[in-house]
Design brief:
Blueprint: E1 3-8, H1 14-28, E2 32-37, H2 43-46, E3 51-55, H3 69-77, E4 84-91, H4 97-108, E5 112-113, E6 119-122, H5 127-141
Parallel strand pairs: 1-2, 1-3, 3-4, 4-5, 4-6
Length: 143
């Protein structure tokens, strides 16, 4: 089975809850997976994983978090060609533009985007949302 990293940034804990549920699903599927906040792993370290589940909420005017996550992702982008990538995050306003833009960046970098789109949940994940995250983690781990 492929090595998987779940890497996220969270301000309020919503995206962290999603990351933990994705990780739980991956582990239930028997994956060799590790969970990191974006400050705990360098882009070069992330690039060695076969499967990357990346999580960041919508910030500001629907952008990725600019102090930690955006620089991390920008440095990682050139290493994504051929990688299997899952995107996830929470939002509280807007219509998901940050995720659509992020999806485009991932596919433009040559990565294979899991499900063809990112997983977004509004505000704090409820039980249905967390179960969806677990399901995505299980499916992604089986890639």
């Amino acid at each position: 089975m492929s090595k998987m990293a779940v890497i996220y940034w969270s301000q309020t804990g919503n995206t962290q809850m999603m990351a933990q549920a994705i990780m739980e699903g991956a582990v239930q599927a028997g994956a060799e997976a590790e969970l990191f906040t974006v400050s705990e792993i360098a882009p070069e370290q992330a690039a060695v994983y076969d499967l990357l589940a990346l999580g960041c909420p919508a910030m500001g005017a629907e952008v990725l978090e600019e102090e930690e996550f955006e620089p991390f992702f920008t440095a990682l982008e050139d290493s994504l060609s051929g990688k299997k990538v899952m995107l996830f995050g929470s939002y509280g306003w807007g219509d998901g533009e940050w995720m659509r833009n992020w999806q485009d960046r991932v596919t433009d970098a040559g990565a294979v985007l899991f499900q063809g789109e990112g997983l977004i949940l509004n505000e704090t994940p409820d039980e249905v949302g967390l179960e969806t995250c677990k399901s995505w983690g299980k499916e992604f781990a089986g890639q």
